[in-house]
Specification:
Blueprint lengths: L1 H13 L4 H18 L5 H23 L5 H22 L4 H29 L6 H19 L1 H23 L21 H12 L7 H29 L5 H13 L1 H18 L1 H9 L3
Helix pairs in contact: 1-2, 1-3, 1-7, 3-4, 4-7, 5-6, 7-9, 8-9, 9-11, 9-12, 10-11
């Protein structure tokens, strides 16, 4: 909730606001600050710090150029916030290893509570801890270890989604919103130069001599992989629309793919997104469709 309220407040307050926008933005900012104050665990401290960094970076971006298109402004804000976070880690006793430990500790505790409740329910039913519960516990622990290693990338992707939701709400709440509203999924794209992020991730992952950058490579791979997979979904949506598959039918098809063929769908989306950098599938579709 905070990750949505903070950007929404920034959008309302920093882009030529009306009096009503100032009031709504101030209320949202107050609510966000209220949610952030008070004692928290080490993971909660990370959440607070990131929310503050993201708010500051987004303020700089929207004040410098109000009404800029959402995708470039959001990616720039994320880049500024990530750079500031990296600088803080470098200048303070906090390390990336400790960040991973805090994440693993926080979500590991929650997972153990849930698995413990499932085991207790199985015991109460007279069956004892089932093999399924034990297998689930091992799988969850492995997933948490993996997620804690790439938590910065996952947080960036989550923040990108929160910025998108905040922008959509801003377009509806502001009396005179600045900038274009979010387009449909099939129009989503970003600067092709971001492909160098993928190249950097591959270099960091595949060149063993670059010691100490394995974690950086993994996070770059997850973040840019997520962006390009989303771009691939946009290409797939454009292809489906060209074939007359749109709306609820397209949504139902996507849900079935995710349900039964999630790994294949993810790889296909990533491949479409990456190749779209050079092929530009949607332009080819427009050319094939011809003038209307």
């Amino acid at each position: 909730m905070v990750l949505v309220a903070v950007p929404l407040a920034v959008y309302l307050l920093a882009q030529r606001p009306t009096r009503r926008d100032l009031v709504v933005g101030a209320v949202l900012g107050t609510v966000a600050c209220t949610l952030l104050v008070g004692p928290v665990d080490p993971f909660g401290a990370l959440e607070r710090a990131w929310a503050a960094l993201l708010a500051g970076a987004l303020t700089v971006v929207v004040v410098q150029r109000p009404g800029r298109s959402f995708v470039p402004s959001a990616l720039l804000a994320l880049g500024l916030a990530a750079g500031a976070a990296s600088l803080l880690v470098w200048l303070t006793p906090l390390s990336w290893g400790e960040v991973a430990w805090r994440v693993s500790r926080h979500f590991g505790y929650q997972a153990r509570l849930i698995v413990g409740q499932m085991a207790a329910a199985a015991d109460a039913a007279g069956g004892g801890a089932s093999p399924f519960v034990m297998t689930l516990e091992r799988s969850v622990e492995a997933g948490i270890r993996l997620a804690s290693a790439v938590f910065p990338a996952l947080l960036l992707l989550q923040s990108f989604a929160a910025l998108a939701l905040g922008w959509a709400l801003y377009q509806r709440l502001a009396l005179a919103p600045v900038g274009a509203p979010l387009g449909r999924l099939r129009t989503f794209r970003f600067d092709d130069n971001l492909i160098w992020g993928v190249v950097l991730a591959l270099v960091a992952l595949l060149v063993p001599r670059l010691a100490g950058v394995g974690m950086l490579g993994g996070n770059l791979a997850v973040f840019f992989g997520g962006l390009y997979a989303l771009r691939g979904c946009a290409v797939a949506a454009a292809m489906a629309a060209t074939a007359g598959i749109d709306g609820l039918l397209a949504a139902a098809g996507a849900a079935l793919l995710l349900l039964f063929l999630a790994p294949v769908a993810a790889i296909a989306a990533l491949a479409l997104g990456l190749t779209d950098t050079w092929v530009d599938w949607r332009r080819r579709l427009e050319r094939a469709a011809g003038p209307r």
